[in-house]
UniProtKB/TrEMBL annotation:
One Pfam family in the UniProt entry: AMP-binding
Domain AMP-dependent synthetase/ligase, chain residue ranges per copy: 139-279
Protein name: AMP-binding protein
InterPro entries: AMP-bd_C_sf, AMP-dep_synth/lig_dom, ANL_N_sf
Domain of life from the UniProt record: Bacteria
Length: 415
């Protein structure tokens, strides 16, 4: 298949799984050489982490924890295995959170999605991600260098100049946010400029609804792919094409282990169930072990029609952080996970907060299989013990609750 980057993308799934698991002990051992990971993974025997079951016993490190970890041990929370002054770049993301970049080629693993878009050596890319403080533009630069593509370092803003550059330099592709591409196309129409060489677009950092994707198709950009990435991990998953047609789902990067866990816990959910995206990255400079992104997604069954055999996810499906204030007190998904651990009869649960302002009602809907009615009272006691709030418990049949990753639903009326 001509649009794959290498043979890794077409490995048999069992071979890929064996390769990833065999690398876990070395990854854990290397990470434990950094003070931050040594503290997080204290007491863990690296040689015993050889499969998903063992990996799932390790603690989560949440993206939301990074600011505190970095404040405790500047500048990178001592999670970096390469000293920060020996890295290539250090970025400042909102928070502030500091993110590193090492010297390895295509360090952010962005070449796979760019190749999936059809980019080849000799193609020209207009790079419209910001070059200021944050890493997205440099993710594109590293991949373009690996693929042999030339880059117009356009950055963001200066829409008229963007159009002039496209019209004069005739790039083959745009890489950046979807909203800015729409602005550029509308400005080109206003200016009467021809930017028709831009037939391909790799879009990220914002939602891409089907209506906007269709708008691009209708306005001269027929090949549009979406990318899921972060400043901590780099490329996570990406869309692909077959004969110019978009394939379902997003294909996981080859150098990551994906887990989908129940929000508020580290427990993996069943295949197809919506949960929080947790990643383990084999990055040699900045390894991440069970890194909880805070994003929701689900595994999509089967392999992509494009021939890439890695796991597919359904894309970004919302945020896992569902902290809700009830009667002046915060209720966290992790508290509900604690309640469930006390009651193995409960297969799945969802806390619905209803009522109007100043009259909150908490109802914990619990999926159970043939559990006695007394379980509801026991769960209610645990809910009160953990959250310090009274709530009703409703036992429901397995499969009754929506598969949307929510463990807390705010159904209150605020009018």
């Amino acid at each position: 298949m001509s649009d794959t980057l290498d043979f890794l993308e077409q490995r048999h799934p069992l071979q890929r799984e064996a390769d990833l698991m065999s690398g876990l002990p070395q990854l854990i051992a290397r990470a434990q050489g950094a003070q931050g990971w040594a503290r997080i993974l204290h007491g863990v025997a690296a040689g015993e982490i050889r499969d998903r079951a063992a990996l799932a016993q390790l603690p989560l490190t949440r993206k939301s924890d990074l600011h505190g970890l970095q404040a405790r041990q500047p500048p990178l929370g001592a999670l970096n295995t390469t000293p920060h002054r020996q890295l290539r770049r250090l970025y400042v993301s909102p928070g502030p959170i500091f993110d590193p970049e090492g010297y390895g080629q295509d360090w952010w693993r962005f070449a796979r999605p760019m190749r999936a878009l059809g980019l080849r050596a000799g193609d020209l890319i207009q790079n419209c991600f910001a070059y200021h403080f944050t890493p997205a533009a440099f993710m594109v630069e590293g991949a373009a260098s690996k693929l042999g593509c030339a880059v117009i370092p356009a950055g963001i803003g200066q829409t008229e100049l963007q159009v002039q550059a496209m019209s004069a330099l005739r790039p083959d592709a745009y890489v950046g946010t979807p909203s800015f591409l729409k602005i550029i196309i509308e400005k080109a129409r206003e200016m009467g400029a021809d930017i028709g060489t831009v037939q391909r677009a790799l879009l990220s950092a914002e939602a891409l609804p089907p209506s906007l994707r269709q708008w691009f198709h209708d306005n001269g950009v027929p090949h549009v792919l979406q990318l899921y990435a972060s400043a901590d991990v780099g490329n996570i998953a990406y869309e692909s094409l077959s004969d110019g047609r978009l394939n379902p789902g997003m294909i996981l990067d080859e150098d990551l282990i994906l887990e989908i866990v129940r929000p508020g816990s580290g427990d993996p959910v069943a295949a197809g169930e919506v949960g929080e995206v947790v990643l383990t990255s084999f990055n040699p400079d900045y390894p991440l072990i069970r890194f909880a992104t805070g994003d929701l997604s689900a595994v999509l069954e089967g392999v992509s029609p494009c021939g890439r055999t890695n796991t597919r996810i359904k894309g970004w499906m919302g945020r896992a952080d569902q902290v809700t204030k009830v009667r002046g007190m915060f209720v966290h998904p992790s508290q509900l996970a604690e309640v469930l651990k006390r009651h193995p009869q409960v297969l799945k649960a969802r806390l619905v907060v209803s009522g109007a302002m100043a009259s909150d009602v908490m109802t914990l809907h619990c999926e159970t299989q043939g559990a006695p009615a007394s379980v509801a009272e026991q769960v209610a006691d645990s809910l009160r013990d953990v959250t310090k709030l009274r709530g009703e418990v409703l036992l429901v049949a397995p499969g009754s609750l929506p598969n949307d990753g929510k463990v807390i639903e705010d159904a209150r009326k605020y009018e």
